Hints:
This protein is an alpha/beta fold. It has six helices and six strands.
Amino acid sequence: MIFRGISANLGKTFDIIKFRVALWFKNYGVGAETDLSLLMLGLKERCVDFGKAKKSKIKVMASLSGSQLYFHVNGSSRGKPGDAGIGSVLRDHGNKIFCLFSFSVVWLDCVTAEVLAIHRGCQLIVDNQLLNGSCIEILSDSKTAVFWCNDEDIRNSSLVIFVYDIRQLLLSLSGLSIKFVSRDANSFADCLAKNGSSGVGDRLEWSDFG
């Protein structure tokens, strides 16, 4: 029993080390003249699920150009820091769901998880050409995360590169915005994030776009 406890703690410590090393020693730069293709590459390289989740295929190749969509995102942590998860749901004004995800991430505090949830949502947006031309509001119930992503001063050095990605995407896509929403209006994403932090299994699902 003692050995299993030590082994679990060492595993979590190793995850944290990998996360920090990825932040500080990887080649993050996308150049002074950032274009969207380079930004997409950077977002994919820094995707917080590290490729663990299996992506389901989009069922119908129909464009959502011109649609108003809402990407509710949330981050959850079981400690300060603790086992963390991120979750999100993409819907339209009629509450039709197009995408949802729930991922576990390494030991993090809640605000860090909230920023990484926004970052993961951004990665999915640039990765899916069917969303090109859509007006998308990324909605988070973390005022701090929303402020940081919208060009406010950020004091968490480990999140600088993720926030930089997000800000560059906001500059590149005119129809994209990040806004604060109340917790009551973000309950679905909150449940998905809590599922992620509980370690029940990573998931990414796309519904019919038709």
